[in-house]
Amino acid sequence: MNPACPDFRQTSLLSRRSLLKVGAAGFAGLNLPALLRAGESSAIKPRAKHVIFLHQFGGPSHIDTFDMKPDAAEKIRGDFKPIASAAPGVNITEHLPRFAKVMNHVAQIRSVNHGMKNHNSATFYSLTGHAPPLDDIRLRDSLELYPAYGSTVAKFKPVTDPAIPTSVAFPYLLRDGSVTPGQTASFLGKQYDPFFIGQDPNDAGFRLPELSLPADTTLARLGDRRELLRTVDRQTALLETSATAQGIDAFYDRALTMLASPKVKHAFDLSSEDAKLRDRYGRTTYGQSCLLARRLVESGVRFTTVYFSASIGGAAGGGWDTHGDNCKRLKNRLLPITDQTVPTLIEDLAARGLLEETLVVWMGEFGRSPRIANTAQFGADGRDHWPKCYTVLMAGGGIRGGAIHGASDRIGAFPALDPVTPDDVAATIYWALGIDPASEFHDTLKRPLPIAAGKPITGIFG
User: Fold this and answer.
1) Which of the residues 27, 187, 193, 257 has the least number of beta carbons within 10 Å of its own beta carbon?
2) In angstroms, rounded to a whole number, what is the distance separating the alpha carbons of residues 13 and 440?
3) pTM confidence score
4) What is the pLDDT of residues 137-153, one digit of tens each?
């Protein structure tokens, strides 16, 4: 039996909650079939079949986007004005006019907070739902740290089609100096690593070397393991860009199956998509990445992670780390890209009947400081890192559109109502997929650890 199989888990492994329920009834008069039925009765009904996790590396300003403070002082509220949205009583920034039209599909969690002030540690927290052991920019990935969301989902709720990966991540490997931890399966093992795509879906020649064979190699030849390994060894670029290829020894059979799958090949073929729809998503890396995410949902991928940027900020192609020129960078680049792409993704999923079964999560590792500051290092009009209160968005997957959980104080500095942590966000994602957040995996020392230490935010679901 395979412990990663959901059926095996349901019939052979009982959660702590099930055992507690059984204990209350007394083990003495309870036989094995009754014990198993008790475990089944506590199963969580899934709200969603898929997750698209949109990670905004660098930390978006909540005050300039979704949790505006128009009545605060000028140095708090910034330059932007609020506008009404499709969700009654919900206002967002004037620079997200298309986003405003889909807010009736979106729930906001406005009281997320934690204590990590550095990008690598805060991003690890946002990618895994577990606080790192220290808040340090030098935090490095190791088998002592927790796995990525998609890897945990691959462990507890894998897809049944062997040709389809459970978890896919693209188009960047995040780093702030060193590679940011939380992007791999860690102690779960390489077989649970996300299928990583390091190419740009917006490139005219976008293709996946993972799914392409040398011209002189047939699938029949690849049936031999040695030939496969020799082929992979020759494709050194593949080894550098693909976590899947690096772990080929653990699941070469899946690689063979994927290579032979027309379904997988079609999912990654963006050239087959209608050109007008591609334009609607935006001919940017982010736009075409989100379009690819929708296609992967259609193919059956369970968990898709899309990174907005490879770096935290600074350069024209950077992320949301707006220490300087906060309003200008938001207005001229970050918000226009977001306003074109994310609403299109939500509308496209809805039009195809996929939104109700797909949970879309939009979040960064933290927010930005309430007060706009001028610094010698970054210049004028900047907002610094602010993990003490920020906003996370969720749409689809049974979400009650227009719902708001929690609230920040009058200047957006601290939670004023119903504070939550990334642990609770993680528990919500797993709960929405029908995975018990109290489920346990084991680290390298064989210690049982809960996959999420928080509680699901159920009130934002219908």
Assistant:
1) 27
2) 10
3) 0.85
4) 889 989 999 999 999 99
